[in-house]
Specification:
The protein is built from 12 helices and 18 strands. By secondary structure, it is an alpha/beta fold. Helix 6 links the parallel strand 5 and strand 6. It starts with a helix and ends in a 9-residue tail after the last helix. It binds pyridoxal-5'-phosphate. The site of pyridoxal-5'-phosphate has 16 residues, from helix 10.
């Protein structure tokens, strides 16, 4: 209904997002009921939408930031030091300075070089050592880029101590879109071993950061992950250990929040050079959001995005391909797929477009960032504990 209302008010064919703030609130309530002891720091990189971020922070979430630009967002929301974790392990000097200027002390590292750079720019920072963990069950693997192998942990603690730096905890990331709850079990066990090594070296760690990697839906996989996390924490970091536990979920809060609505702006059959329409020939559609727009996940996560017709037709199906609006020859978001025939000017939509979509768009060919409209889905309005306050 929100979709149709918005379309009726529009008099252009530009694509747009519908963002359900109720879904974000529902996810936060679900998180806190499933893992009450673990404060989520929303990884805003995955959907830097100010309304979503502001909603989550007003409910009690912190923010995981990755750059000076994201630090500005945290400050605009009035967040304090304890509300922000800077989880990028290799930071530009000017970005570390931005954190220092704002007094945001919690940040991660995974190398000796990073320790030296932090020593020069922000020696009072509170450091989390990022551990390399098993990310083999994830769609987007993080281990090749960040995380120190366990064999280097003791050495890095020693270097930090020699430099007079303050290591306060550990962090890890099991990879984004993980399918295996036991990845958390193993990573938390590894974190405990790092805590033990620190203790042997005279360091008292106080923070465990379990990263992101949770699914985009509050589904059975999510429940199983929560169970695995809670169980491992009970064993290795019981409440009386005094360790503060935090997480950096991105996809979990963002994925289901947003629906992309786009318009079919071109259509033709692929004819051969001698004007022959071959049996089984392909229908080419052009749509006004593309691969270098919201659909980079086609390459990054080998994701297949299928358009839903706003008003489904029962026409003939064609082998089809879908192309984005730019002149880039690579701007193909779907190929070799059977789709019911669609018409130029028709609206199509894509659900679950909140995570790692619009944040990855480029302005190639002068296409502007997609407009967003906000609403609260009726199904959440009456059930959410805050609806009377909104
Ligand atoms: N933390 C860090 C350091 C990340 O690199 C990412 C994304 O890859 C996240 C958190 C969020 O991960 P996810 O969206 O899988 O929860």
């Amino acid at each position: 209904m929100a979709l149709i209302n918005t379309l009726q008010k529009k008099n252009d064919d530009e694509p747009f997002y519908l963002v359900d703030i109720g879904d974000v609130i529902y996810k936060y309530v679900t998180w806190t009921s499933m893992m009450p002891g673990i404060r989520p720091y929303f990884a805003l990189k995955c959907h830097p939408d100010f309304q979503i971020i502001a909603t989550l922070c007003s409910l009690g979430a912190g923010l995981d930031v990755a750059s000076a630009g994201e630090i500005e967002i945290a400050r605009a929301l009035g967040l304090q030091d304890e509300d922000v974790v800077y989880s990028n392990t290799c930071k530009g000097i000017s970005h570390i300075r931005a954190a220092a200027k704002e007094g945001l002390t919690q940040m991660s590292f995974d190398s000796e070089v990073e320790l030296q750079r932090i020593k020069l720019t922000f020696p009072n920072a509170k450091l989390l050592i990022r551990l390399l963990v098993d990310d083999s069950h994830s769609i987007l693997k993080t281990g090749a880029k960040a995380g120190t192998p366990f064999s280097r942990v003791s050495h890095l603690f020693k270097v930090a101590k020699e430099l007079g730096l303050n290591v306060v905890g550990t962090s890890f990331h099991i990879g984004s879109g993980c399918h295996d709850p036991s990845a958390f079990t193993k990573a938390i066990e590894k974190s405990k071993k790092a805590f033990d090594i620190a203790k042997e070296q005279g360091l008292e760690l106080k923070v465990l950061d379990i990263g992101g990697g949770f699914p985009g839906h509050a589904n059975t996989l999510f429940e199983n992950m929560c169970h695995a996390v809670n169980q491992a924490i009970d064993i290795h970091f019981p409440a009386d250990s005094g360790v503060k536990i935090i997480a950096e979920p991105g996809r979990f809060f963002a994925h289901t929040s947003s629906t992309l609505v786009a318009n079919i702006i071109g259509k033709r059959l692929r004819y051969s050079d001698d004007d022959v329409q071959i049996e089984g020939t392909e229908m080419l559609y052009h749509i006004n959001d593309g691969l270098i727009g919201s659909f980079l996940g086609t390459i990054l996560a080998r994701q297949k995005y299928l358009p839903q017709q706003l008003i489904p037709t029962k026409g003939k199906s064609y082998r089809s391909s879908l192309w984005g609006p730019s002149c880039g020859a690579m701007d193909c978001l779907l190929s070799d797929c059977n789709l019911p025939e669609m018409e130029a000017g028709e609206w199509v939509y894509y659900e679950d477009m909140g995570a790692y979509t619009s944040c990855l768009t480029t302005n190639f060919n002068g296409f502007k960032n997609t407009t967003r409209y906000y609403y609260i889905n009726e199904k959440y309005w009456y059930d959410l504990p805050f609806s009377s306050m909104l």
